[in-house]
Amino acid sequence: MKLSTTKKLAAAAAATALLLTSACGSGDDGGDGGLTQVTVGILPTVDLAPLQYAIDEGLFEEHGLEVTTRVTSGGAEAIPALMAGDVDFIFTSYIPVLLARQADLDVVIASGSHSNTPGEASPSGVWVSGDSPAQSLADLEGATIAVNSLGSVAELLVVAAMDSIGVGRDDFDLLEIPFPDVPAALDQGRVDATWVAEPSRSTIIKNLSARFVGSPDDPAVLSAAAELQDVPMAGYAARGSEDAGLLEAFHSAMDEALGVLADDPGIARELAPEYTEIDAELLPDLAVSTFGPVEAADLERLQDLMVTYGLLDEPLEDIDEIVYQP
């Protein structure tokens, strides 16, 4: 079974990025105190906690960087912006990065971020409103499911989970809706279910009495499917041609932050109000990810899933070169 958006997304990303590559730049020297100014394209999810921690604690400054952020809708938009030099780094699921490499674009993973975690406590997964008749993924056959970006880890995980219970890709629809707009879409009935990340997850639980589809021990449930547990989800990408010193500085600062969040992921709850619009009362129950670095070997499981579901034509020959090594 193949994902419907595979070749269209790869071709669009390749064409757009190749047209814009001539505009590529690198971090701009001249920030305060001689710091190099860099811009990071982000998604407003709780998983940005390591980046925010590195900013707040001055880790980037210690490595000579002044970091600003710019919101993007997902990797499909962010990869062309990265290749055009509009941003220096992007927070993205790894799928657009692997697709870009398949399209011969020089993109590398500069830093890890987090992995998929199983069960209802996961910060992401498939959810329905409290009054939905759906009690399991099987009940979503024929339904419309929201994902923040087509051709992303959201689409892959939903398709893989539905396939695990025998529901084919042609038997349900996916609708691209940015995370901040998901609560309203679910409330208005524009979608029957949604793959969602924090803080949207907590918002729909509070306002719509949303339910995780199925039970945490159901192997067919999205985040509990054995093949999906601990799959690396997202990280920070850069142009492979980026200045080596800039890559090392960013990687080193993020590596320090990831170490702190890996030991104490609850820090993400403290930081979330700085970069999301979450209600303070939701913070205690906010689900957080498993934070940590990524290695090329970690991407092989994700790559295998992408090949299985048609997102990649074949395994990448250079997967060992995708993750930046200082």
What does the secondary structure layout of this molecule look like, with pairings?
Layout (H helix, E strand, L loop, with lengths): L5 H15 L7 E2 L6 E7 L6 H8 L2 H4 L2 E7 L3 H10 L4 E5 H9 L4 E9 L8 E5 L15 E4 L5 H12 L8 E4 L5 H6 L5 E5 L2 H9 L2 E2 L19 E8 L4 H20 L3 H9 L14 E2 L4 H13 L18
Parallel strand pairs: 2-3, 2-4, 7-8, 7-9
Antiparallel strand pairs: 1-2, 4-11, 5-11, 5-12, 6-9, 6-10
Helix pairs in contact: 1-4, 1-5, 2-9, 2-10
Explained architecture:
The protein has 326 residues and is α/β, with parallel strands linked by helices. It is 35% helix and 18% strand. Residues 1-25 and 215-225 have low confidence and may be disordered. It has 2 domains: 6-115 and 231-321, D-Maltodextrin-Binding Protein, domain 2 (3-Layer(aba) Sandwich); 124-228, Periplasmic binding protein-like II (D-Maltodextrin-Binding Protein, domain 2, 3-Layer(aba) Sandwich). The strands form 2 sheets. Strands 1, 2, 3, 4, 5, 11 and 12 form a 7-stranded mixed sheet that branches. The chain has a 5-stranded mixed sheet with strand order 8-7-9-6-10, sandwiched between helices. Helix 1 (6-20) runs parallel beside helix 4 (75-84), helix 2 (49-56) packs across helix 9 (244-263) and helix 2 packs across helix 10. The protein contains 11 helices and 12 strands.
Essential attributes:
326 residues, alpha/beta, D-Maltodextrin-Binding Protein, domain 2, seven-stranded mixed sheet, 12 strands, globular
Q: What is the total tally of β strands?
A: 12
Fraction in helix: 25-40%
Fold-level CATH name of the largest domain: D-Maltodextrin-Binding Protein, domain 2
Low-confidence stretches at least 5 residues in length (pLDDT < 50)?
Answer: 1-25, 215-225
Q: Report the span from N to C terminus.
A: 38 Å
Q: What Rg do the Cα atoms give? A: 19 Å
**CATH superfamily of the largest domain, called what?**
Periplasmic binding protein-like II
Counting DSSP H or I runs of 4 or more residues, the number of helices is 11
**pLDDT average, as an integer?**
81
- The rough form would be described as globular
Number of domains: 2
CATH top level of the largest domain is Alpha Beta
Q: How would you sum up the major sheet?
A: 7 strands, mixed
